[in-house]
Write a structure and sequence with these properties.
With 281 residues, the protein is of the alpha+beta class. It contains five helices and 16 strands. Strands 11, 12, 13, 14, 15 and 16 form a six-stranded mixed β-sheet that branches. It has a four-stranded mixed β-sheet with strand order 4-1-6-5, with helices on one face. It binds zinc ion (ZN).
Length: 281
């Protein structure tokens, strides 16, 4: 039987399972998402997610399965987003993020939030429909703000979350609350977590963060006070760092950079002026 939308040669597919995909470390040092033409794809997928069509007319699908397939070649290996995001090209990372985000959403929305009955997948993975009440549920994205706060001396405010290991510092971050603008969210979060007041707020960039369904909105924020009072609930410790102090702390191993794929790294690097060390940690 023809499998509509999956005909070769203009369709490429890959398997996603539990947030993991297969990646392949190439001899030239690059790493690729392992994709196959549709006719080679496993036919027993649980669900199929349409991820889009590129400028060359190639369509991409993720097949959601209970486990990753056997290795298609010797060098392929399973990887989650935190690892693969550091290695894959922007295109492959975007495909993987999309697939992982849909998989997370599907997993968490098996039941109708209106009537409680079971929902079924529709629209190539982009809708879950309730067969009892007819409600259609769409993938959701939860906005979160992440901000590099600087003071009048151009020092950066970095904090350590309560569940992070000793020495792991990063930008402050938090979820946008209902009825709040994202700028208000930046001001509130910084004050709640570190007791620092904020004046000017400048949007920088965003990043999808499917753990499980966030969109991280990155900002630079200028402090109007410098005294730190951590909340102790989300942030255990916060400090002002000059560039020299941060460089020395990295050197001494007192401070570990944030996880490499996070937008936090990019915000800090833009202030710091050069790449952070040990990006893969
Ligand atoms: Zn329902």
């Amino acid at each position: 039987m023809a499998r509509s939308g999956l005909e070769p040669p203009t369709t490429r597919v890959f398997v996603v399972s539990g947030g993991q995909v297969l990646i392949d470390d190439r001899p030239d040092g690059t790493t690729e998402l392992v994709m196959t033409p549709a006719f080679e794809a496993p036919v027993t997928e649980t669900h199929r997610y349409f991820l889009g069509t590129d400028a060359d007319g190639v369509s991409y699908f993720a097949l959601q399965k209970d486990s990753l397939p056997g290795r298609m070649d010797q060098s392929a290996r399973p990887a989650g987003l935190r690892e693969a995001g550091l290695l894959l090209s922007d295109r492959d990372t975007a495909l993987m993020v999309h697939a992982v985000a849909l998989e997370n959403w599907q997993r968490l929305h098996r039941f109708c939030s209106r009537c409680g009955e079971r929902t079924v997948i529709a629209a190539a993975g982009h809708i879950r429909r309730c067969q009892a009440c007819g409600a259609e549920h769409y993938p959701r994205t939860d906005p979160a703000v992440i901000m590099l706060v600087t003071d009048e001396h151009d020092r950066a405010l970095l904090g350590r979350q309560v569940h992070w290991p000793e020495g792991r510092f990063s930008t402050l971050a938090g979820f946008v609350e209902p009825g709040e603008s994202i700028e208000q969210s930046v001001v509130r979060e910084v004050f709640e977590e570190a007791g620092v007041t904020i004046g000017e707020v400048e949007y920088v960039a965003s990043q999808p963060w499917p753990f499980p369904s966030s969109l991280m909105l990155g900002f630079f924020a200028r402090a109007t006070s410098s005294e730190i009072t951590v909340d102790g609930e989300e942030i255990h410790e916060a400090r002002w760092f000059s560039r020299e102090e941060l460089a020395a702390a990295f050197e001494a191993g007192e401070v570990l950079p944030p996880y490499g794929i996070s937008i936090a790294s990019r915000l800090i690097e833009r202030w710091y002026g050069r790449p952070l060390r040990s990006r893969a940690t």
